[in-house]
Amino acid sequence: MSTIRSTDAAQLGFDPARLARIDEHFGRYVDDGRLAGWQLVVTRRGEVAHASTYGLRDREAGAPVADDTLWRIYSMTKPITSVAAMMLWEEGRFELTDEIGRWLPEFADMRVYSKGSALKPYTVPAIEPIRVWHLLTHTAGLTYGWMQTSVVDGLYRAAGYDLYPPPEVDLAEASRVFGTLPLLFQPGTAWGYSVATDVLGRLIEVVSGQSLDTFLTDRVLRPLGMDDTCWYVDGTDTARLAALYAADPATGRAVRHDAIGDLAYEKPTLLSGGGGLISSAADYHRFTQALLRGGELDGVRLLAPRTVRFMTRNHLPGGQDLGTLSTGGFAETSLDGIGFGLGFAVVDDPIPSRLPSSAGEYYWGGVASTAFWIDPVEEITALFFTQLVPSSAWPIRPQLRQLVYSALLD
Questions:
Q1: Which GO terms describe its molecular function (predicted)?
Q2: 9-83+212-406, what's its fold?
Q3: Which end of the chain is more exposed for a tag (fewer CB within 10 A), N or C?
C-alpha cells in the first residue's frame, strides 16, 4: 500500500479555496444519501494538488473511507488491458491491422445482424474481418447483453451473458461464444460499447502464452507498484473493500447491493479484461502518472511516449465523434466532440460537450461511478472513486470537471 500526499496547490496553479468546493459539493451527495462515501485525487505536473475522502466505505458497518480503501473499478480495467496489449504490439507480436481470427479462430467468419427478432434473426456475412484495432476502439460490432438496446443484445442475454457471465465460464469459452453470435454492425462502421476488451484480454493470453492475470501482474501491475490491484479480495483486505450500492429509483438514495457487490470476494473464473479489477486510489494514481509521463514512472517504462500519444488520438473512422458513430446504451462519456482512441475516450473538441476540458484529454470510467481523466495539455490527472451503480444515476463526472477546472488559475 502506498500513500498519496498533497503538495501546495497554489504552487501548482490551483486556488485551494476553489479546490475545497469539490469536497463541499460531493459532501452533499453523502449528506443527503446519494452516495455512501468517496475518494478524490487531483494532480498537476506530477504533484498531488488535492486529495480527500468523505463519508463511509461501508455505511452499514460505520466504516469510513480511508486512504487505503479498495474500490471495484469495473470498466477502468479497460485502459489497463489496452496498455498491456500495446506492450505486445511494441514487441512486434501483432499489427493493429491483423485479423484477430489469426489467433482466435472463432472470429474468422463472422456474420452481422441485418433484421428480424431474437428468435429469428437474419444475418449477412461480415464484409470486413475484425481486426485488433477494432477491439481497442470498440468498433468491432460486438456488444454487451446488459445494455438491452438491440436484438443482438438479446442474443447475448439468451446465451447467458448479461451483466455477468454464466458460472464456471472462463475467458476462452466466453470468447468462443461471442464468436458464434452475430455482430451488431459491420466492423469499422460504428462505435458500440462492448465485450471487445474482454476479447482483447483473450488475445493477450493467446499471443503471450500466459493467463491474463499473470500477464497483467508480471508486466503492468507489479512493475508499477500497483500491489493493491487485484481480481478479488480475501483475508484481511476484505475490511478495506468498499460496499457496493445502487441508486434507488424512487428516492435516489444509495441502497446496499450485496447481490453484485459480494462477487468481489470470490475468485473469478472469467478474467474480465473489460471490467474485472479492484484497485485503490494510490494504485490507479500510479497508472495515470505513468501515462501522463509518456509511459514511464519511477524508472519503469511500460510504453514509449510516441505509443501513448498514438493511443490517445481519435481513431474513429474518418475522425468522426461518438455523437455520430455511437450505437448508444452506455453512460461512461458524453458523445459530441468526443472521439475514441486505443482504449480511451478522447476529447477532440470540448465545446460540443459543454465542458471546459482540453482538446487531447483522455479518460474513462466504471459502472460504479468511478472515473479518471488525464489532461496532457495542463498536465492534470483527476481520479474519483465511489461505489454506486449505475454510473448514470448522477452527473458526477461533468460536475467534477467543472469544479476542477474552475479551480485552475493559470
A1: hydrolase activity
A2: Beta-lactamase (3.40.710)
A3: C
Of the ranges 142-156, 159-173, 216-230, which is most confident?
216-230
Residue listed under C-alpha cell 444515476:
393
Whole-angstrom distance, CA of residue 70 vs CA of residue 385: 9
* Mean pLDDT along residues 156-164: 93
| Torsion angle defined by CA atoms of residues 207, 340, 44 and 35, in that order, rounded to the nearest 10 degrees | -100
Taking alpha carbons only, the member of 303, 296, 298 closest to residue 84 is 303
Q: What's the chain's Rg over C-alpha atoms?
A: 20
- How far is Cα 306 from Cα 108, in angstroms, rounded to an integer? 31
- CA–CA separation, 388 vs 253, rounded Å? 10
Boundaries of every domain in the chain: 9-83+212-406, 93-207
Query: Does the global pTM surpass 0.85?
Result: yes
| Measured distance CA(87)–CA(133) in Å, rounded | 14
Residue 14 DSSP one-character state = B
C-alpha cell at 347: 476529447
**Span 48-101, pLDDT tens digits:** 999 999 999 999 999 999 999 999 999 999 999 999 999 999 999 999 999 999
